[in-house]
Every structure is written in structure tokens, then in C-alpha cells.
Amino acid sequence: MKCPHCLISFHEDEAVRNLTDDCDFFWTAQYQICPACKKIIVCLKGKSSFGVKKFLVYPKGISRAPLSQDVPDDFSQDYKEACLVINDSPKASAALSRRCLQNIIRGVAGVKKSDLNKEIEELLDTKSLPTRLADSVDAIRVLGNFAAHPIKSTNTGEIVDVEPGEAEWLLDVLEGLFDFYFVQPAELGRKRDQLNKKLADAGKPPIK
């Protein structure tokens, strides 16, 4: 498993404490200490003949790599909220991520169509994204099955059913887009400014 605190992977070896049963499930508490960061991970698990439900109790949300300060608040806010609620409601997390994705496509890539599905198509047609990132963006339509669930593309903020792994995939893709559109250009800009300062100190013209 991957530690929700520090993101280091390790072999799962949870201790289990039986709690009680209700009309739906038999409930247990599962916990263990991450061998890397030494923090506790606590889950609540319900089991019945109908299936299993498991909830991450502590920490509240799954940790992900901190966003760069180069990502504008207009985009990072939806992303952070999507991370926070993903364990309690993958549906809500995916809705926030889809809205964030559409805002990036419209506000940064300059693609504005009637729905997210068509906007993704036009963005990919521009060939502006690196191949791997373009394939990841395109996979959002496949994983989300936009053809069968058009509300996901026409009402991006709507709370609708999601496929297993869909909410996590949306967060992964958003991180890739943040890096491409915001982080990499900002880093190159800072490096150019540093180089121009050295050139200026040497009495040479700056690069543009």
C-alpha cells in the first residue's frame, strides 16, 4: 500500500480490532504505522454478504505531492478540494476535477466548446500536448465513458457515478497539466532571468 501521509509504498500489515455489527455490516478498525514516516494510518471497514466498504479515517484525505506555488489559486483550489474528499466521495472528487480540467482547457489552452468531450477533442487536435500527457487526457473520456454518461461532459460539476479509479486518474492528469502549463514555463522563466543577470553583469545583451 501507499502511505497517505508520505506517499511511500510498503507492504500492508494492518492490525485489526473488531468493533460491532449493525443491520448492514460487521465493522472492524484497521490500523498500522507507516515504517517510513512513523505516522499511524486508521481505516474503518464494514463487511457483509453484499460486499465490503472501507473508509480512511486518519489522515482525512490521501496525501499527494504538494502543488507548486506556480499553479494559480483559480485552478489549485478545486484540485485541493478534490483530493480532500476523494475518500468520502469519489463522485464529488471527480466532479471537482472535471470542472478544474474544463477551466484549464478553456482558460489556459483557449479551447471553448459546448461540452468537455468536444473540448478535449479540440485540445488533442492542436497537438500542443506531449504525447503521454495527450494520451492521459484522452483516457479521461474512455474511463469516464462520456458516450454512456454525457452528463459528465455537459455538466462537469454534476455528482454522478464514477468508474473504479476514475477520480484518482483525474487528479493524476490534472497534476500533469499543471506541470505542463504552469510549472515548467515558470521554471524556464526563472532560469532565463538568472542567465540574463549573469549576461548583464558581464556586459552582454540578454537572451529573449
Structure description:
This protein is of the alpha+beta class. The protein has 2 domains: 1-63; 73-193, no CATH class. The chain has helices spanning 73-85, 90-107, 116-125, 131-144, 151-154, 166-201; strands at residues 15-21, 26-33, 40-48, 51-58. The protein has a 4-stranded antiparallel sheet, with no helix packed on it. A hairpin with a 2-residue loop joins strand 3 (40-48) and strand 4. The longest helix has 36 residues, at 166-201. The mean pLDDT is 89.
Short structural summary:
The termini are far apart.
Low-pLDDT parts are none
Number of helices: 6
Principal-axis shape equals: flat
How do the strands of the widest beta sheet line up side by side? 1-2-3-4
Q: What is the average of the pLDDT values?
A: 89
Structural class: alpha+beta
Determine Rg (CA atoms, Å): 21 Å
Report the major sheet. Answer: 4 strands, antiparallel
Helix content: 40-55%
Order of helices and strands: EEEEHHHHHH
Measured between the Cα atoms of the first and last residue, the distance is 47 Å
Work out the oligomeric state of the chains in this entry.
single chain
Strand portion = 15-25%
Question: How many DSSP-defined strands?
Answer: 4
Total domain count: 2
